[in-house]
């Protein structure tokens, strides 16, 4: 895909910012269902496919990593624009409302599950690489989304809608504490790569 830490930081910042805005709009002004949060990261799968395809292509020779990064981003942006236009057209003419009448909850649940399983191969195996961070993250997500909403009645079901967002914030603070405390200083290189928050240089390279 090309690029260095600066380009990676810009890409991650943009993805998280746009996904956060779309998730807030969907949960506050859209259908207001927790399941629509899954739509915010559905674009990651085709983006990864486009990036991997351009890496294996030998037709184009790039002189600089930044040039390869720009070309990959343009391809991904073009694909997302075309896909979004198709969705806008469906919504403008009311096709989504027509399809929604025939799409019962029994049929919608498998669609949401398949969207999550599409990211399983990329995300869940990372949990075993750093069990100190992955297992607490899984526990916090389950607690916030399944148990705490029944114990704490919040207005607008905030815990159910933003369980993943709150979990990421809590676990990131926990991971930063472990890194600063030196919990991984004497661990293997693979563990440090997977667990440390300062190993990639993305935070320092981000244009704060």
From TrEMBL:
Its main location: membrane. The chain crosses the membrane at residues 12-29, 35-52, 73-95, 101-121, 133-152, 158-184. GO terms for molecular function: transmembrane transporter activity. Keywords: Membrane, Transmembrane, Transmembrane helix. InterPro entries: NCS2. Pfam families: Xan_ur_permease (PF00860). One of its GO terms (cellular component) is membrane. It comes from the Eukaryota. Signal peptide: none annotated. It is a multi-pass membrane protein. It is found in: Membrane. Belongs to the nucleobase:cation symporter-2 (NCS2) (TC 2.A.40) family. This is Purine permease, putative. It comes from Ricinus communis.
């Amino acid at each position: 895909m090309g690029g260095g830490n600066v380009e990676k930081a810009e890409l991650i910042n943009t993805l998280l910012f746009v996904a956060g805005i779309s998730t807030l709009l969907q949960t506050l002004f859209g259908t207001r269902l927790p399941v629509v949060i899954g739509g915010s990261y559905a674009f990651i799968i085709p983006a990864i496919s486009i990036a991997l395809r351009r890496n294996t292509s030998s037709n184009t020779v790039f002189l600089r990593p930044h040039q390869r990064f720009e070309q990959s981003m343009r391809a991904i942006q073009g694909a997302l624009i075309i896909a979004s236009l198709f969705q806008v057209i469906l919504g403008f003419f009311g096709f989504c409302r027509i399809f929604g009448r025939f799409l019962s909850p029994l049929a919608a649940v498998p669609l949401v599950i398949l969207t999550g399983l599409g990211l399983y191969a990329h995300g869940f195996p990372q949990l075993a690489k750093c069990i100190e961070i992955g297992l607490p993250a899984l526990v916090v997500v389950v607690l916030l989304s399944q148990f705490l909403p029944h114990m704490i009645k919040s207005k607008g079901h905030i815990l159910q809608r933003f369980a993943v967002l709150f979990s990421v914030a809590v676990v990131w603070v926990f991971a930063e504490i472990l890194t600063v405390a030196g919990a991984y200083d004497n661990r293997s290189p693979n563990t440090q790569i997977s667990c440390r928050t300062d190993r990639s240089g993305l935070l320092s390279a981000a244009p704060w």
